[in-house]
Amino acid sequence: MINKTVANADEAVKDIFDNATLMLGGFGLCGIPENCIAALIRKGVRGLTCISNNAGVDDFGIGLMLKTKQVKKMISSYVGENAEFERQLLSGELEVELIPQGTLATRCMMAGYGIPAFYTPAGVGTEVANQKETRNFKGKEYLMEHAFDADFAIVKAWKGDAAGNLVFRGTARNFNPLMAMAGKITIAEVEELVEVGELDPNEIHTPGIYVNRIFKGENYEKRIEQRTIRKG
Amino acid sequence: MINKTVANADEAVKDIFDNATLMLGGFGLCGIPENCIAALIRKGVRGLTCISNNAGVDDFGIGLMLKTKQVKKMISSYVGENAEFERQLLSGELEVELIPQGTLATRCMMAGYGIPAFYTPAGVGTEVANQKETRNFKGKEYLMEHAFDADFAIVKAWKGDAAGNLVFRGTARNFNPLMAMAGKITIAEVEELVEVGELDPNEIHTPGIYVNRIFKGENYEKRIEQRTIRKG
Amino acid sequence: MALTKEQIAQRIARELQNGFYVNLGIGIPTLVANYIPQGMNVVLQSENGLLGMGPFPYENEVDADIINAGKQTITTLPGTSFFDSAMSFGMIRSQRIDLTVLGAMEVSENGDIANWKIPGKMVKGMGGAMDLVASAKNIVVAMMQTNPKGESKLLPACTLPLTGQKCIKKVCTELGYYEIKDGAFHLIELAPGVTVNEIKAKTAGKLVVPDGVREMTF
Amino acid sequence: MALTKEQIAQRIARELQNGFYVNLGIGIPTLVANYIPQGMNVVLQSENGLLGMGPFPYENEVDADIINAGKQTITTLPGTSFFDSAMSFGMIRSQRIDLTVLGAMEVSENGDIANWKIPGKMVKGMGGAMDLVASAKNIVVAMMQTNPKGESKLLPACTLPLTGQKCIKKVCTELGYYEIKDGAFHLIELAPGVTVNEIKAKTAGKLVVPDGVREMTF
């Protein structure tokens, strides 16, 4: 097996350059690459274009990189509640491209599948369709959408091994396996780095071929955005 | 949970009609729906169009349905060694459409993903490109290919539950989960039908929403096409 | 008397059928889950990647890795499956979801919907709404009939940027239940005690009131 | 002396580098696996849905659910993963495979390949060959230099229906090792004892023989 392990987050992100395009896994604060985000802040790389479904909150997730003004552009489906985000957007410091969530997910997947373009009905007849080619298949209108092109994909998995195989847990899976397939360089941080051979080959979500670097993350906070409980 | 179980293969295939288009999972003889094929032969339904990567061998798999002349057309990537197949093809009894394997797999997946068309480089400059639209993306030529449209998908899984959740084993996975997503009606036969809740929700390959009928298959032969061994 | 939010949800829940896969949006739509009839098998899909959503967790069950599309902590049920967001929207686009319930800012008489953007205000994004409305075969909108200014949200044409075109089949407001067809809002049922005149006053789009329209009962 | 099939495989194996993901076709290409240098980490992909292919099983290890793209029973290794065929060809199309080795009936001087169909003969199908040749960044063809009639298979243009266009980078035959570039077969190495004259006689396409071309050693 090919050994993809690196020592830590700082080593994993060391060649991420100013003005790079990054994919960052996670939905809300669930399944986000906490360690790599911290390392990117320590590194101070700037001018980033971030493809991520959401933009974190003011004091966690990608929100932390917004505070340090490292992000030039967000490509997201929902940017939620984030005061600093709103301030930068209104002041023109930050650019935002909003994309339907299914289209965002599929554009990642298609990059990993080597399919340059595909058709989806999402956004037909809306401003999302501006400048886009439409086409009718069997009486229904579709937009042509393109695979993303990202310099780096940064994902967070539950378990992984040195060969780069990844397993996700619960809804922390979300965009992570899609982005893992889509980066020119894919960096995976995992809660548990297990021995090669320990993962059941039937249960691997991301085969190691898609992963270039893997490391065991530390001190996961796994913050909850909406803690909803029932009494009992 | 919604209960998708049916008693047996005969009940599962009972509404498959003459001239229907079927997807049949499996690669070679690996992971083929043995029980449903037997039931289709008992039922005697005719004029079938079968989308399946291969066409079985003379005395097993889809080959058995060729023998009974139930198949009008095969859509496959490789039809292998099958004397009866060859005879019917040369006599004009059987129609064959050959499709690159990756294109076949992806056309199934796209049906399940609600994507009517996509672009692939496979077949550019060959006779596969005849009548197909080509398009250049970033300097490379691609063909436009369409999602399949099948009346029924018939797949074989290792484990499944009454909710229709499926887990595949080894390379018997192949086209099965792709076709499971792609049929108007999807029928799954499984080696083990387990209690709902027994499958780990992280490890389900095909979520039950895609499966309409499920049953425990019997007497799997699991024939091996090329028994290659080393001495030791 | 106008329906409460709970009653809107309760009325929409009557659309449920045994064996339905259902996607519920944030807000009133979420409440529909509380009115699934006992013994009816309905499976809830959450578009971040979950089929078979259970109720909120007890305090000791909270799991940061298990949330719904509203980012709320939730639980699983026997038969639950997790998957990535591309497969999730694959289910949606390939029309495996039998019923989708969404909130809206405006709905038009031809079934257009606007629910994601108000020009001049901070835009948070469409999330999965555009995928859902472009794909779902059976969409019911749950909303108030008028906006805070008292203006009808059932319009001849949407004034806000669209989320989707000609896609909404039914609307339930606090005043009535409407089917959208042939370019009009067809009143199917009235909220208890609400008059047709009040409906007419608060429907800007083309309205069809059949003879003997029924009153809802709860 | 012309190379044996094993020697062709052995020569191609010298293209392997540590960390390579490799797809080997049926026939001579399969033999390349026998010549992976000790200590070099190379992972074999099988396009039916397997990464990390091991050797053939011992009699008691045979498992009908674990086969390769040639439908042969094989084994797994620590780190193996299984996946569906769409993801498998996804890896291929997105160019994650570092080296692809295929057999061929004909190769042209501009890198076209024909290896799936002979008009008038029963056509078995292209399998995954068209996907592989259209996508792979680094393809080496392993074949005999001439057909059974003694005619060159290194041609100005393929006469058989194409599998792919301008995609082959290198060819290894029993006589020599060629790089295809600038519309010609560039002889890189000669089989031991084979003369440039023999190569010339058996190459119908444009041939470039650099000064001092090396002889292979084994």
Description:
The complex is a heterotetramer, with two copies of chain A (232 residues) and two copies of chain C (218 residues). Chain A has 232 residues and is α/β, with parallel strands linked by helices. Chain A has one domain: Glutaconate Coenzyme A-transferase (3-Layer(aba) Sandwich). Chain A is 20% helix and 27% strand. In chain A, strands 1, 2, 3, 4, 8, 9, 10 and 11 form an eight-stranded mixed sheet that branches. Chain A has a three-stranded antiparallel sheet with strand order 5-7-6. The longest helix of chain C has 9 residues, at 5-13. Helix content of chain C is 16%, strand content 26%. With 218 residues, chain C is of the alpha/beta class. Chain C contains five helices and 14 strands. The interface between A and C is large, with 58 and 50 residues.
How would you summarize the topology of this molecule?
The complex is a heterotetramer, with two copies of chain A (232 residues) and two copies of chain C (218 residues).
Chain A: H1 9-12, E1 21-24, H2 34-43, E2 48-51, H3 62-67, E3 71-76, H4 83-91, E4 95-98, H5 101-112, E5 117-120, E6 134-137, E7 140-146, E8 150-161, E9 166-167, H6 176-180, E10 183-194, E11 213-216
Parallel strand pairs in A: 1-2, 1-8, 2-3, 3-4, 8-10, 10-11
Antiparallel strand pairs in A: 5-7, 6-7, 8-9
Chain C: H1 5-13, E1 20-24, H2 28-31, E2 42-46, E3 50-53, E4 76-82, H3 85-93, E5 99-102, E6 106-108, E7 113-114, H4 129-135, E8 139-142, E9 154-155, E10 170-172, E11 176-181, E12 184-190, H5 196-201, E13 207-208, E14 214-215
Element order of chain C: H for helix, E for strand = HEHEEEHEEEHEEEEEHEE
What is the C-alpha radius of gyration of chain A, as a whole number of Å? 18 Å
How many structural domains of chain C?
1
**Counting H and I runs of at least 4 residues, what is the number of helices of chain A?**
6
Strand content of chain C: 25-35%
Q: Secondary-structure element order of chain A, as H and E?
A: HEHEHEHEHEEEEEHEE
Query: How much of the sequence of chain A is in beta strands?
Result: 25-35%
**CATH architecture label of chain C:** 3-Layer(aba) Sandwich
